[in-house]
Structures are given as C-alpha cells and as structure tokens.
C-alpha cells in the first residue's frame, strides 16, 4: 500500500502507522469502503507480530488470518477542498448555488488516519492482535478490529530473504544485544527501525 508510513513499533508487539485514506479506498458515498478497512487492518495488525518473530516462532508472514472482525464506529470522510480556477466564473447551475463558488474547482483530498496495532496474545499456533483506526489526534475512533491469526510454517524459499532486523536474533531465537538497539523514553530496550 503506497503511502503507509510506519511511525513507531516496539519489541513487545506494537506498531503505529499513518495512512492517507484517499479516493482509491472510498465507496460511492465518498467514505472509506469497509473492504478497504479489512485490507488495511490485515496488513497493519500482522506487522505488529514482526518484532515477536524468531526462527520457528511466527516467522514474519508465516501465518494466515483465521478471523478479522471489524467494528465500524464512524465513517471516514474523503474531504474536499475548493481551489480557485483560472477560468472565468460560470453561471450557477442551480438557483441556490452560491455564485461566488461558481469559479471554484472541487478537489478530493482524503483523510490521514492513525493505525495502532497491539499483539494481545501470541502462542505457538495462534495469535490475537487488536487494531484501532483513529484521527491523528486520537480524538475520533473510526473503527476497531480484532485479528486472529494461525501460524503456519514459512516455506523454506521465503526464509532465504533477509531483512535488516534479522541480525537481531541468534540461531536459538534469543535477542542479540548491541548496536542495533536503542532505548525508548523510559530507558527500555527498543529495536531500531
């Protein structure tokens, strides 16, 4: 998903993102489509499992969705902006149409949301992650989800691909201390993003 921005993550299994919900994710009523919320939550909540993974335990992308329950609380509006047009004003289309807007062009902007995901339980074969999609200031919660995943073995050819944080783990799955770690505000260890 283009434009998905990781804001924070922790080794305890949390991930925070910012994402622009624009017209690509809207339905005909100019609000976010429910199916789009499902795809967004699926990706963002699964990512929260990444810091918990180690060889043989929730290898990243080594699971499938069992259930993904979403509660839609408020519609996410597309948002509009009126821009001045270089063209001369046109007569109003309707008698009630304000004439001072007749030379403006409507532009769809979108709404940037904050996604917070937290792993509430991760066992050997099943995990549950909760997610919240809210306004950037956190005052408006648009929807929430509960995502249950089932661990399946990752195909060997997929495990050949390496990512920057793979060096954080030793062969037996214990965290390697060193230069790839930093401390958060409370002085606790946090993986470097």
From TrEMBL:
Residues 172-193 are annotated as: Disordered. InterPro entries: ACOT13, HotDog_dom_sf. CDD domains: PaaI_thioesterase. GO terms for molecular function: fatty acyl-CoA hydrolase activity. This is Thioesterase domain-containing protein. It comes from Venustampulla echinocandica. The lineage of its organism: Eukaryota, Fungi, Dikarya, Ascomycota, Pezizomycotina.
